[in-house]
Amino acid sequence: MDPFGGPLQPNAPAYHPPVRILLLGGTAEARDLAARLTSADIPHVSSLAGRVSTPRLPFGSVRVGGFGGVEGLVAFMRDGGFSHLIDATHPFAATMSDHAAEASRVLGVPLIRLERPGWGDRSDAAIWHWESDLTQVRDRAEALGMRPFITSGRQTLHAFASWRLRTVLVRVVEPLAVQAPATWTVIEDRGPYQRADELALLQAHRIDVLITKDSGGSHTSAKLDAAAELGVPVVVLRRPPAAATATVVTNVDDCLTALREAPSEG
Ligand code: NAP
Q: Cys-Cys crosslink for 46: which of 42, 58, 140, 164, Cβ 3.0 to 4.6 Å?
């Protein structure tokens, strides 16, 4: 096996050294990838935004905090001698992904986008209400139910500010920065969640519409199973598109293959 986990080719370099990877993380996939890179001794640094008070830290070298926009990211990569950029941030971390695309263009460094598949292939996804922005999500949910369950994240709650007199259930990972309306119940939790617990939660709060973004993965998908079982309509925020210049992969193995095949100045 070569350092990226692929078959060794006789008489051919298995990858293009020197390799030094900046891995933009904050997801389970990024942690899995960091573990694989660490065990293969491939030089890399994982980067976290620093939003979560007790983050699950990846193996290997880690830095925390924003870079200070595209310029900061470019300077960080240049100073650190990074040869490859892997954007394994959450599918909805659109600003960081835009900055990664721009930094990769400025530096001429290959960009790999590791993004887990969305939930669109589920059989029940065909009857969900797919919307492209938060205003549409709110309007659609308003038309569908009176007791919404909002699971689209802390940063989306501004879109639901007009619901201050509604009975609303919200689930977030981190405490809210501002006080929620008195009619809202706010749960702090980060999963993973089980179907039986999600069923009980939806029933206990008599939820009649579920709001989510298309995060994908299995950690938070049990709410969708529960909604399907109870016949609760689901309103889904679509993902932002990936950068056209990125090599897009959906799992860690394919990411390692893309890394092995990516050009590098060496
Ligand atoms: P965002 O809106 O796309 O990014 C806002 C700013 O946060 C970026 O411009 C950057 O600051 C900083 N940032 C974001 N990700 C970073 C990273 N991995 N390393 C260093 N700086 C980072 O991001 P977000 O949606 O707030 O997500 C923040 C982090 O939480 C990401 O790592 C993401 O993977 C994770 N996460 C997000 C969600 C979600 O729903 N959005 C869900 C789970 C986990 P500068 O401009 O100063 O560089």
A: 58
Mean pLDDT to the nearest integer, 100-109? 97
Distance, in Å, from the CA atom of 63 to the CA atom of 216, rounded to the nearest integer, reads: 26
72 lines ligand 1 (CB under 6 A): yes
Report the residue among 90, 172, 174, 219 best suited for mutation to probe ligand 1: largest number of ligand atoms under 8 A from its CB.
90
> pLDDT digits over 236-257, tens only?
999 998 888 889 999 999 999 9
58 CB near ligand 1 (under 6 Å): no
In this structure, are residues 226 and 202 in contact, taking their beta carbons and an 8 Å threshold? yes
Whether the CB-CB separation of 145 and 231 falls below 8 Å is answered with no
Could you tell which of 63, 76, 89 is best to mutate to test the pocket of ligand 1, judged by most ligand atoms within 8 Å of the CB?
89
> Would the CA dihedral through 157, 159, 162, 166 be positive or negative?
negative
Could you tell me the distance, in angstroms and rounded to a whole number, from the CA of residue 31 to the centre of ligand 1? 15
Q: Please, what is the end-to-end C-alpha distance for the chain in angstroms?
A: 21
Question: Around 190, how many Cα atoms within 13 Å sit in the side-chain half-sphere?
Answer: 12
Tell me the chain's radius of gyration from C-alpha atoms: 20
Q: Is the CB of 68 under 6 A from ligand 1?
A: yes
Of 162, 156, 99, the C-alpha closest to 133 is: 156
Q: How far apart are CA 160 and CA 150, in angstroms?
A: 9
**Separation CA 44–CA 241 (nearest Å):** 26
Instruction: Please answer whether residues 258 and 141 qualify as being in contact, where contact means their C-beta atoms are separated by less than 8 angstroms.
Output: no
